[in-house]
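Incident review: delayed structure delivery

Summary: a single-chain prediction request sat in the queue longer than the usual turnaround. Root cause was a stuck worker, restarted by the on-call engineer. No data loss occurred. The affected request and its eventual output are reproduced below so the record is complete for anyone auditing the incident later.

Affected input:
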Amino acid sequence: MSTKTDPILLSLSVLLQLEQAARHAESQRELAFLFVNDSRQLLSYHQAFFWRFDDFGRRKIELASNVSEIDPHSKTALALLDLLGWVSGQDAASGIHPFTSADLPSELRSFWESEGFSPYLLAVPMKTAHGVDMGGLLFASAEPWNQAHMTLVEKLADAYVHAWVALEGPRRKKQVLSHFRNNWRRYAAGAAFLLLFPFRQYVLVPAEVVAKEPFIVSAPVSGVVHAVTVRPNVEVKKGDLLFELDGTDFLNRLNVAKKAFDVVEAEYLKNSQQAFNCESCRAKLPELAASMEKQRAEVAWVSAQFEQSRVLSPVKGVAIFSDQNDWRGRPVSVGERVMMVADPSDTRLQISMPVSDAIAIENDTDVVFYSNVNPLDSYSAKISSTSYEAFPTPEQVLAYRLYASFEGKEHPRLGMRGTAKVYGARAPLIYYLLRRPAVWLRRTLGI
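Output delivered after worker restart:
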């Protein structure tokens, strides 16, 4: 008794076998070989090509039937890429798309026929469950494709995609790349908008809170500092002793001047008593009187210098200097600055802007100061003056010196150091990003 084979059941059986083989594939290379060769068990075709998108969104012919490798730079591979580009531009390209070689443009048709490929083609796009284009299959047959073929290949392609994605491992990278590939125009437009958006320039530079109008305390006479009687950053009153010079030399000179005055005075008194009986004694009196006045002036001058060796505070404020031990025993000349006395509430911001970071600054430009002591608090200020020339900082960095006046009632403490955010004019963001590289190129290459 003969049993008649049901073609529908046979096709379903082959479909299940191919799905099982796809799930058991151990690598994507093995799976691609199954795509283009083992699919003949279900579909009748002469040639099959499997292509996919690479990480940069470009089409790539991965494998062809009956060959182990395909040269991506060969004439056939390049022509197939042109053909796939033409197929993607067709209205029906979003789904399974049957067509013939007669539908192709003249150049592609002549190539296809010259290579001896079958005239009936079937383009099968392959998309993941998330709608991401993975690639596709292209079948060429000598017989026309019917609806049954397209139904079977639709199910088969779905199983192939599932197996391929399973072998990819982590999908996140592929999904991200696919997302950027499909939306790169939007991102490019957004990036161009951001780069051309007017952006207010600013630089972050070191700054220090200094006294606005400090009183300079300098050495009134030349000498050696004997002692500094105040500590740094301590409030002093007007008339308080700040420091004193070594008075030994002044005291010795004062004693000598007084002795000389006493001698001249005694000589003057002696001759004035003898002037009634001695003509020569009376003649010496004017000369001795002049010498006595000279010695009196000498005593007064040395005494004034001795008094000036004790330097008193001229105003009320805070004593600003480095350290007491830095000055003890140090020789100073007339007019040499020793310290400053300043009002702690009358301050301003001194900004050092390196030449390499310099931007166009005008008066009344906004400044935000962040202190190192409390970086979460900020103080607003406005530029009041800028230096014309750059000066070397203590760190030997050539910088412009700017001064800013604080706004509001609350001012930072005198001596605070921190970072100043100095704003400039508005410019495109791309100018702000490329400003320093452009300066470097001009300095290095002279362009």
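Verification: The radius of gyration is 49 Å.
Action items: add queue-age alerting; document worker restart procedure.
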